[in-house]
Amino acid sequence: MTARILDGRATSAAMLDRVREEVAEFSREHGRVPVLATVLVGDDPASHTYVRMKANRCAKVGMESRRVELDAGISTETLVKTIRELSADPAVDGILLQHPVPGHIDERAAFEAIDPAKDVDGVTRTSFARMAFDEGGFASATPGGIMALLDAYEIPLSGKHAVVVGRSPILGKPVGMLLLARDATVTYCHSRTRDLARHVAQADVVVAAVGRPELIRGEWIKPGAVVVDAGYADNRGDVEYEAAAERASFITPVPGGVGPMTIATLLAQTVRAAREGTEK
Ligand SMILES: Nc1nc2c(c(=O)[nH]1)N[C@@H](CN(C=O)c1ccc(C(=O)N[C@@H](CCC(=O)O)C(=O)O)cc1)CN2
């Protein structure tokens, strides 16, 4: 079997076309465009690239982005204060704090300073709980993007065994919850899992979200499985792509799979936040 590609570039482009229309409609109705504030701490080149990509995509759909760049040495208190100010600013609709922040900063405290109504990246406890209870909060951007990609290809999930490799709060954990909400049977694997290969080999759907290039060997993939690779370290996936593609029915490439869907989801959720903000 040779897998069909789950094309995140094409799917996200279609999503962004819809976002562009929604932005135009919002602008006609409210006389302004939605605003996404991005907060970046420090000099990590990859993080700078991702924030720049987000700002570029905002411009392409007619949305405004406001970039806040902070010195690597700032304290948690200063970061929290900056984010609280953005949360209180009526001109800002959505807030994104680029992960990771430098090690001395309490990232959780910084995430929690985001008003849940503006948490378009789905990183707060409130968003997580709303996701877990299926109460319509903002999804974490990458998990939301993964679900949108699976839906675009009409991949059935109900009753399927999904194995999520990784348990980070903004990726592995929430994607498992979203799969569970769609009636998949979910197994989480992580760094202490014994015999990862055995678990992966049982999966109808594999979501690789560990950030360790090619950790998942192609020969582990069950023939016909759907493989979603959310790895992005150095633009390399967590899955041994060529070998996995020989066995899978569908597979995401890296680049061109999950990454573009992450940004499209972030922007879609920003327009939604802007709309919901005006309904209050
Ligand atoms: N606050 C957040 N921080 C981080 C997130 C996140 O969702 N929220 N995810 C990652 C990084 N990330 C977004 O921030 C991200 C990574 C990769 C891509 C992407 O589209 N990659 C392209 C390839 C890159 C290129 O074209 O140069 C691809 O896969 O095709 C988007 C977003 C960690 N931090």
TrEMBL record:
Residues 140-276 form the Tetrahydrofolate dehydrogenase/cyclohydrolase NAD(P)-binding domain. It comes from the Bacteria. Keywords: Amino-acid biosynthesis, Histidine biosynthesis, Hydrolase, Methionine biosynthesis, Multifunctional enzyme, NADP, One-carbon metabolism, Oxidoreductase, Purine biosynthesis. It holds the Pfam family THF_DHG_CYH_C. It catalyses: (6R)-5,10-methylene-5,6,7,8-tetrahydrofolate + NADP(+) = (6R)-5,10-methenyltetrahydrofolate + NADPH; (6R)-5,10-methenyltetrahydrofolate + H2O = (6R)-10-formyltetrahydrofolate + H(+). Residues 6-121 form the Tetrahydrofolate dehydrogenase/cyclohydrolase catalytic domain. The keyword Amino-acid biosynthesis applies. NADP(+) binds at residues 166-168. Pathway: One-carbon metabolism; tetrahydrofolate interconversion. Its EC number is 1.5.1.5, 3.5.4.9. HAMAP family: THF_DHG_CYH. Belongs to the tetrahydrofolate dehydrogenase/cyclohydrolase family. Homodimer. Catalyzes the oxidation of 5,10-methylenetetrahydrofolate to 5,10-methenyltetrahydrofolate and then the hydrolysis of 5,10-methenyltetrahydrofolate to 10-formyltetrahydrofolate. This is Bifunctional protein FolD. The lineage of its organism: Bacteria, Bacillati, Actinomycetota, Actinomycetes, Pseudonocardiales. The gene is folD.
